[in-house]
């Protein structure tokens, strides 16, 4: 507050600058909100909205943060470098605050805050139950969803407090009829960050798939084309690793098989973190590069392909299978009529049936009955594991869908390095010429674009049904 | 097909081929002063004989062919092992005879580049020919061939003159294990007896589940059995816990009368006239002393039953193996009538094949308490 008062006189000095820049601006945009400004500023109406380079040395087009929309951040400035705030900036900030406030309200309404709170209460009472830990797996699941709901509620209330902070600054500025660069800068940062967070939140709302919350495993395979394709696969590997690191996912290259001359034949990246699979699932497909081959003396233009497959990183089920004794039916058979002293046969067959599944194993080759029983039991466990594994495998197969072929006509994205620079997603049409940033892991716009595209496709499909 | 025996045995370990008179071997009385020296099982002998892989293969192929020639002849004749079981036995013989049996067992039938590879054997190759030939032609039990039997988690030395422990009998150890687990000390730390111990299987199995103060006395009438049982006890380092005594049933136990907390036995129970009809491995090779239970097979069971009344402490446990349902029922009948009031909680336990095999129970306490309301006497 003090600083606001102190800066009052200073701000009024900038009026003349503002006037000139406004006049030089070419795009007139009417300001729909009648400003409640001090009369000393009235002379500057009507105001023109828009950006002029002369006006805003402090404004710069910051690179987009995680999945932030480019069109939203353009209106905010970075105030720490300067406090030269013009009234137009204030108005545009005020507009941004109003927009974001509306957005927050919409999101809070659409998510159903009330329902969330009810859900939270239900989950909490479930977790407080005495028998809660009897079923460990279920308990864990309940706790997970409890955290989810809590996080969501917390996030939603954070949105509200942040938007309120920004509104307070705007209202304050209006009341005292002066512009404080530092304060307004703060507000603009809030708006910018809030927009990013809202984007992210909206996106997570798009993640409806059962594995979207999981971590991801990314498999990169070089297509045909020898060293060029293998080098391309290596570039993609670097790109995804960079992306993962930017998201602060625990990113590990768990497998890498090197090409003969350069690059890699294949690699596997594991990314641990929330929604990694949700974000990356759209990256599945063939990625095509067009460039002058660095491996070709003539520097001819070369097209190469690499396949990217993405799978959720599913938690390993415990290898140790414990089967309750009562689920086992153990029978010992010994061919030979009367048994006991009457018979001398080395065979001591043991048969164990797992009652719930009906899976049975028999062990005869060990030299004692007890040894046969132990072996049969471990064999049964292995068999049950294999069955569980097969179940999982068919599930994984479902998730994976068709195999990705690293060849012509299958690509989801083109990366053209030569003769011009362009990265273009074939599916969404999104493109950028900043190929260097993309290769540095700036994939958010592509990822977000695809998710929205997928979402709208699904909506269209649903509405036409 | 060549089934001949190509080389004469010159092994210094020829005792493994020593073959005592089948039927009633070594039935010298308890007055026998010189204890027979037990044989070392094949798998414990030093691997001092070398042989090339190709020589061993040759033997293996010969042995397989010999086993295959049996087909189902044995099983048709007297329910003896068929070719499949004999092949399994052959693998186990290789396992016991070789210092490192893996190469031969895993490369079965596959081409190995190194036919000249030298392997170490625990017996001369010639002996292996002779051993397998006798297994097939004389129907000598496999366990006597290799000198051991895998029983529970134990590997027990056996030889002619000692009954080969049967898998059914393993259950008695399970019964005792369950019993001492829930016990507060009396049974776990008390004195047990295994009568007619043979190889010492039951004594060792029980000795390993008793507490630190628990003891087992094992008796046998056969000096060979006593020697073998003592050898096995030594091998499992239980000599402080298990005492082997030579003598008939309760005879060596006179000084512990009424002190036993447990009594187990797998006495001879086969009716005399059944023996000749048993599979050749049993009838021709195992000691008749350990099999023949008299006219109806009940002679020794009844003797044990009778002795148990005076030898067991009140509350003491007993478990006897029988020939099946008929003997179980008649034994229970005997306890309910002849020794009325002596036992309680008498029950019949089936073996894993579902045959009524064991009779178990407790010596009644003088004042029948609530725990034993199901006493036969009441």
Q: Unreliable runs of chain B, pLDDT <50, ≥5 residues?
A: 1-32, 107-111, 370-378
Query: What is the tally of helical segments of chain B?
Result: 12
Rg of chain B to the nearest angstrom? Answer: 23 Å
Radius of gyration of chain A: 32 Å
* Structure annotation, total helices of chain A: 12
Order of helix and strand elements from N to C terminus of chain A? HHHHHHHEHEEHEEEEEHEEEHH
Q: Strand order, biggest sheet of chain A?
A: 2-3-1-5-4-9-10-11
Strand arrangement, largest sheet of chain B? Answer: 7-6-5-8-9-11-10
Compile the SSE list and pairings:
The complex is a heterodimer of chains A (465) and B (378).
Chain A (H helix, E strand, L loop, with lengths): L1 H11 L2 H10 L45 H4 L13 H25 L1 H15 L8 H41 L4 H26 L8 E8 L3 H21 L3 E9 L5 E9 L3 H5 L4 E8 L8 E13 L14 E6 L15 E6 L4 E5 L5 H32 L10 E6 L5 E4 L5 E2 L2 H5 L4 H21 L1
Parallel strand pairs in A: 4-9
Antiparallel strand pairs in A: 1-3, 1-5, 2-3, 4-5, 6-7, 7-8, 9-10, 10-11
Helix pairs in contact in A: 4-6, 4-7, 5-6, 6-7
Chain B lengths: L48 E4 H18 L2 H6 L4 H15 L4 H5 L11 E4 L3 H13 L4 H5 L1 E4 L2 E4 L12 H12 L9 E5 L5 H7 L7 E6 L2 H13 L6 E5 L13 E6 L14 H4 L15 H13 E10 L3 H13 L5 E8 L5 E8 L15
Parallel strand pairs in B: 5-6, 5-8, 6-7, 8-9
Antiparallel strand pairs in B: 1-2, 3-4, 9-11, 10-11
GO molecular function (chain A): translation release factor activity, codon specific
Keywords (chain A): Protein biosynthesis
Family (chain A): Belongs to the prokaryotic/mitochondrial release factor family.
